[in-house]
Each structure stands twice: as structure tokens, then as C-alpha cells.
Amino acid sequence: MNNAPIPAISVAMSVYNAEQFLPSAINSILTQNFSDFELLILDDGSNDGSRAIIEDYAARDSRIRPIFRANKGLIVSLNQLLAEARAPIIARMDADDISLPERFARQYAFLQENPDYGVVGCWTDEMDEHGSPWPLCMNVHPLTHEAFLQAIDADEPLLCHPAVMYRRDVVLSVGGYHAAFKHCEDLDLWLRLASVTHIGNLPERLIRYRHYAGQVSSRHATQQGLGAAIAKLAYHARKEGRPDPTEHLDQLPPLDQLDAMFGGTGLEQAVRAKVAHGVLYSIPSLRGEGFDLLLRHIADGGDRTGMWRTVLRLIRFGSPWRAARLALALITS
Prior knowledge:
By secondary structure, this protein is an alpha/beta fold. It is built from 15 helices and 8 strands. It has helices at 22-30, 50-60, 74-84, 103-113, 145-153, 168-173, 185-193, 216-219, 221-239, 258-262, 267-278, 283-286, 289-299, 307-316, 320-332, and strands at residues 9-15, 37-44, 64-69, 89-94, 98-99, 117-127, 165-167, 198-210. Strand 1, helix 1 and strand 2 (37-44) form a beta-alpha-beta unit.
């Protein structure tokens, strides 16, 4: 393998218990119109049939480099894939999505023609777990770097992580993925990269992105929301020439430390308010730490828009006690 020609692209795919969708994801890579790539598939300690699927594909296609190890989590997996990739260009891919055949060719050509861009994504075609269309009301991802910076300030979508292609050396220059930003490691990375390279998207739907109940954004909305809000604080600190207090953290700081860390006032309440409205539609979060955060937000006198609908949602999904607590908080606070 060490004497083999260096491919143009290294595809970085991390897998954990993905047997349901993994064959479709792998097939969509192996059938790309652009074929000069290696496919690194890191199995992060799966206990389903994922390993057998990976081994079967690797035996049939020499471009696949399987990596098997004990579970260490996605951020460790992504940084390991960065370290082991041989190509100067990395194409991210998740084990539950589908890349269209022309994706690599279009994105690689863009990076070759635009050396000032270190990251390029694309628009997405949303689907459910069965491959049927998934209705999603959101702005399309920004095309130019200027639009990307505007989207940051407007809290609009930036990039779809499994749809990006980026220059390996640029991502390594900012330290890769940071451990503290679990479940929003991609957003933190884009915000750090925004000051060192140009970032944009192709106005083509080159990946089918899957939505289903078991994905990270459904199960970890509270932690994802907290991480995203703190990543934005760090972004603005760097933008203003101040030190980034999150740079060497292994986990997110407690909310009551934000004012001291970032030298501001009211940051704890502002972050809690932002996250509170983000968890209203996540039943797993409302059944977990998101519920206490929501109650604290109400006690602080925060905006209650949509809260009564959440009471009804909790009843509908079998959490009457939490529904009653939320209703009481809305009445008495």
C-alpha cells in the first residue's frame, strides 16, 4: 500500500452500527464518475453487522482501506481519518447518506479551479429513512465566501458535513476537529476555518441527506445546541482579536462560567434562551437535560413562544408528568 500512487482524494467515512444504510452509502462512493480515490472506512467499534459489510466490500475493491478499532467516538474517528488519509483532498461521507455519481468530479474541479477555497460543499436532497422525500423549510447553503460569512451572522445553514470536500492541510492547520464540540464538531471547524480560507457551496444537489429518529441531531439536540452557541461565542472572540477560551478544552464549559470566560455579561441567559427554543421539537431532549434547561429559561422570564404546544406534544408522546411541570412553570413564572 505504501508504494501505491497517491490518490487525488481520500474519502473519510466513520461508521458506528450503520448496517441498515451502509451498503447504499458505500455503493454511492464506488460508483462515482471520478474514480481516483481511496475510501477509508473506520469502524468505530460497531456491534452490529457493519464490520462484515466493510470486510466484504474491501475484499472486492482495492480502493477501500478498512480500519477497525474499539469505540472512541466520532471526533476521535474524524481526526484519525485525517491523520491516515494519503490524499491532499478529503471528501467527507457519512454511512447513512448517498452521494450522487457526479459529486466528486464537480467538487474536485471546483477546488482545482479555485485555490483560495479550502472547503466546498453542495446543496442537498433531503430524504427519510426509506429514501422518500423529506420536507425541510430552510435556506439553501451559501455559495460564496462572502455569503458564507453573512450566513454565520444570520444563524443560517452553512455546510452539510457529509457533503463537503476540503484541503487536508488547511484543516490540519487549525487543529482538526476539537473534542469539546461533541455533536457540533463540524460547525466549530467551519467557524475556525472561516478566518484562514474561503468556504462555499456548489448550487447543485449532489448528496441525498437522510433524516431519521436515530441520528445525532435527533438524539442530542440539547448538547448540539449548547455547543453551537458556544462555538459562535468563540468565533466572535477570534473575530474581535480576543483569545479563544475554548481552544484547548476537552468538554464544553458550564453555562455559569461563560461570562467570565468570554468577558461579557448575560451570556449564560442568552445561550440558554437560544438552546431552549431549539429543543422544543426534540422529544429525546425534552425527556433529558433539555427539559431542565427549558424550565430555567422560563424562570428567567424568557420568550415562551411555542411553549404551550410543547405541553401538548409531551402529552402526545407519553410524558404527562413533564407536560404538567411545564404547564405549571408557564402559569406561575
